[in-house]
Specification:
single chain, mainly beta, Jelly Rolls, 5-stranded mixed beta sheet, 1 helix, elongated
């Protein structure tokens, strides 16, 4: 009887009496896979389009089996990174870390992650590091944000649509800038907006509500005070986004 493969990491499971002379090689590969899953690090170059991570059977080089995956490269379009939902052995349960180190500070291109079969991808804020879980049956979810990066926004990339976790340094020295909030939100989502150059009083920063309430009203919010820095948190459908902090 031929080998079978485990779920999750697709370790090769040798049937008794099979693979004569190959046990050492197969065992070493399995040990490499276990090491990769516990402490493995790899980089993934992104540019545009969809990229599916690999959980290939018995492969020590399959990139989706790494514990830590760093996204690099300069984006020329929106990117989605997909974790497979299953392997030959069944549902693929994966807990892993991703770090965004892509170059997209002068564009509005997005990086998102999902599990195969998930209807809606989860956008990743610029420069963030996330701990993610994928159980192969439900959607890929974040179980912790380990780091939030800062993203510079100016009239060169306005309007910008924010994602949960964004920390935006806004440059309105030349023209006003519009930051649109996400079209959907979950309780506890946060977005930081900072006047990076002391110009909100001259050229405003408009925060578009994108269909959700801000401070209980279905309308945009205009930031017009120099050196203003706010943190918006989503609390419920009635209040929508409200101030967690509002400082000058």
């Amino acid at each position: 009887m031929a080998s079978t493969y485990s779920s999750d990491l697709s370790l090769e499971l040798i049937t008794t009496g099979e693979k004569a002379g190959l046990w050492g090689t197969i065992t070493n590969t399995n040990l490499q896979l276990l090491q990769t899953a516990s402490s493995g690090y790899t980089t993934l170059t992104l540019s545009t389009g969809n990229v599916t991570l690999s959980l290939a059977d018995g492969s020590a080089s399959a990139n989706g089996k790494n514990f830590y995956i760093k996204f690099i490269g300069t984006l020329i379009g929106n990117c989605t990174v997909t974790m497979p939902a299953s392997t030959a052995g069944g549902n693929a349960n994966r807990v892993f870390i991703i770090e965004d180190a892509t170059s997209r500070t002068t564009s509005n291109y997005t990086v998102s992650v999902l599990t195969t079969g998930q209807a809606t991808a989860t956008p990743i804020s610029v420069g963030s590091t996330l701990l993610l879980v994928s159980d192969g049956a439900n959607t890929l979810t974040s179980i912790g944000m380990m780091n939030k990066g800062y993203n510079s926004i100016s009239d060169a990339n306005t309007p910008y649509t924010a994602v949960s976790g964004d920390q935006l340094i806004v440059d309105t020295r030349t023209n006003p800038v519009t930051v649109n909030l996400p079209v959907s939100a979950s309780v506890g989502d946060e977005i930081v907006i900072i006047d990076g150059y002391n110009f909100f009083g001259s050229n405003n920063c408009v925060v578009g509500n994108n269909g959700l309430n801000i401070l209980g009203v279905a309308s945009s919010l205009t930031l017009s005070t120099n050196r203003q820095a706010i943190t918006l948190v989503y609390v419920n459908a009635t209040q929508g986004w409200t101030y967690k902090t509002n400082t000058v």
